[in-house]
Amino acid sequence: MNIKNHEKSESKVAGELLEYKKVQRYAAQILYIIYVIAIIIIIGGMVWTIADLIMRYGKTTLFLQLSLGYQVAIIGIILAVFFFLVIFFYGLFKKGIIVILKILFKRKTYPTRFRNKWSIRIMIAALMLSVFAIIIGGVFSLVFDLILGATDGTFSLSALLEIYSGGLIALFIGIFVFLINSLSFLLIYLWYNGYYAILKLVADLED
């Protein structure tokens, strides 16, 4: 019974995926994979940060001084946790993609009278691109201000390493990748759903 239920569930998931366009499925897959990478980096950064709090310097030297058995055990633990996360997120791959697809690409019915009115569609697209420019410009300005503010106005990797530990930098990278991916998620959502909302508003105003 469990095997039959599993097969039914798999066929249902496959059917749901086929309801969306190939481009939409690829976009959802990329977003999911980047989210997984970011989460793994964040988890690794958190563990590294805790290790830095215990001993910021000399961890590599201490590791090399351990016996071969301890070294193999430590590497084994790291690899075991890594592959467990990979297998876990692989198991959620299709369901995660479907969740993203359902959020981003809900089916919508566009007013038929706007199908050939390219002037309105171009103006709406220009408005959406302007909103994107505001959001992207604001986010990147904030990130650069934070980085340059920490290094007296000039970007320097050595200065960042002096201020922040390796674990914190890895954690920041993971969070940054997660936020950039979330920003991409938001922009795709706004483009697909915002375009429809504005088009519907224009139709309501005309009526």
Q: Approximately how much helix is present in the residues? A: over 70%
What count of domains describes the coordinates?
1
**Could you name the ranges where pLDDT drops below 50 across 5 or more consecutive residues?**
none
Output the radius of gyration: 24 Å
- How does the helix and strand content classify structurally? mainly alpha
Overall form: elongated
Report the total helices.
8
Main sheet specs: none
SSE order: HHHHHHHH
Q: Could you tell me the strand content as a percent range?
A: under 5%
What is the average per-residue confidence, as pLDDT, rounded to a whole number? 78
E-strand count: 0
Q: How far apart are the termini?
A: 55 Å
